[in-house]
Design a protein that fits this description.
Elements: H1 8-21, E1 31-32, H2 39-56, E2 61-72, E3 78-87, E4 96-104, E5 114-120
Antiparallel strand pairs: 1-2, 2-3, 3-4, 4-5
């Protein structure tokens, strides 16, 4: 008994029909974090300032998180969109605000976290 494969057109139609029944990938919305002093949020902010400072040889001191939002990341983990306050030592303590985007998995090793964006907000 020999088995014959169906014509390519039939296979394509079956795949198209199966794909049309799959739910569309959802794009998670950004959710505001009500407590910017939450330990995890503060740690994410400190991580962003530290990594940026090391990568760009900038001496910045983390002062705090001003605003924070989270989003479930496609493929797992969490995206963190933060506005952090940081100051350069000896800069009369004048803080600047920075827009940050960090991806990570809470509770995982720090080397798995990624700083995606860190830019000064012009005042």
């Amino acid at each position: 008994m020999s088995w014959r494969s169906p014509p390519l057109g039939v296979v394509a139609l079956l795949l198209l029909a199966a794909a049309s029944t799959l739910p569309a990938p959802s794009r998670a919305e950004w959710a505001a974090v009500p407590d910017v002093n939450d330990l995890v949020i503060r740690q994410v902010g400190q991580f962003a300032v530290l990594v940026y400072g090391l990568a760009h040889r900038k001496d910045l001191a983390f002062l705090g998180v001003v605003r924070a939002q989270t989003q479930e990341a496609v493929g797992g983990g969490t995206n963190y969109r933060l506005v952090v306050a940081a100051a350069k030592p000896g800069d009369d303590g004048r803080p600047a605000q920075y827009d940050c985007l960090v991806w990570g998995v809470p509770g995982s090793r720090s080397d798995t976290w990624k700083l995606r964006r860190f830019r000064k907000i012009q005042s």
